[in-house]
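User: My instructor asked us to take a sequence, write out its structure as tokens, and then describe one feature of it. I'm not sure where to start. Here is the sequence I was given:
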Amino acid sequence: MATASIKHSCSSKSLSLDSGVMTITSEDSYKSDFDDNSLTPLSPSSTYTVSAIPNIEHSYIDALILCQWDNILGPRLDHVWYVTGRPQPHTNILRFVTGQVLSGEICRDVHTSQVDIKFVDIPDKGVIIPAFIFSAQGSRGISLQSLALIIPNSELTIYLHQADLIHSWFSRIVAKLRVLCAKKDFGTSGLADLSSWLLSCLEMLSSLQTVGLPPTIQLSYTAFHPSNSIEQDFLRSVIASHLMTFSRSVVMGLNDERVNILVYTLGLFCWDSERFCSRAALKGKKWPYYQDLCVQGCTKNPDGSYNLSVRDLLCSQYPTTIIDVERREVMQSSSVLDHRRLSYETLLEELRELYEGEEGYGNSPSRFYQPVNSPESIIKDLIEDIHKLPPDYGVREAYVRHFMHSLQRRAFCLIKYVEGEVTSGARISVKRIKQDLGLQLEGDFRITLAVADKMKPGIYHYLLGEKKYDTEYLPNPADVL
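Assistant: Let's start with the prediction itself. The structure tokens for your sequence are:
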């Protein structure tokens, strides 16, 4: 992974005493209405360092900041990452944002390991600020800190579509950042590590901008078009496993066109919001596996190999379907019931290795992969029905949408059934649920249950899991360190 270049400098601008409110115009949202010559020097304690994050083709994030609460000075800006090619926010906006994200946090217990997500909309400054508030060990003891993104408010829509994805990535970054802050060399090697993680996150978001799936997928791009024939048993296994793993899949292959046929096909079986977090393969781009993308296409090396990070697979929110186009293999990164435990253990191991300074952390043995062996009928019937329909006039696309709507209604029925059983005090019987809802086959039940869990998180583990695997019973990995 390339490391973001670090170019340290110090800020030499400050707000004049009578500058007043900054005026934002559509032509230049970061220009202020005062003369720079009137600025007075800042004290040495108000300086901050700057880094550049280069080689990001598409970004709607202008800058990222790291700030902390100083018990003497109040909100203090420590470091700024500017994204190369994007407008650079003015110094006054950076300081204003620092005060906003840390305001109201003075009474927070700094000894808690909880990471809070704060969203600040500043219309008169023309920016929105997603911020992650956490406590970390610094050179002056434990302090309240924040890692925040500065985004133009014109990009609010796309941010909201990808907010959960960004939260997932930054939660992991913050967990590792808290470990770095406890080490004495954070200002040197620690800052470089943090910059490389932020670079990876922005590269992931850039890939979504480059070849993200469209809101509406044309049939000609999918395996349901007559010109794109794929073996039905393989296609059936791919779609069934994709739905069992909460619509999380990675498709690998040598030919990007063959990979994208499956990527776009699986895109039909994603919710609208999930397509905004899905990406096709691009010829000439060797993207790695990115955690928590819904569907992603990846091109193999010429020798047929692909370096799939097991650690990133297990740190994802849900298990992932791994599809090899050439080998016609469909595997799952882990079982749904084991994934939370494995995810916790993997993140804990990552933080431990980072704290102890061990080299080469990033990959683990792929002993957790398992084949798909749950028989089902609903995908088999769906594929047979689709091939009976004409490929013209959007008939097949409409039928797939109807299938997804009916699957959601069936999942909603399952949720209401379980709620009714709990309310009445009856003993939950999975066997009776399967029989009453017509889900006798294990694959049909797990597909429906996965959709239900996305609508009502926790119901999957409530019916099939054990309490010791639930997130609420696992300690915070940051607490252990």
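For the description part of your assignment, you could build on this observation: The longest strand covers residues 127-138. Try explaining in your own words what that tells you about the chain.
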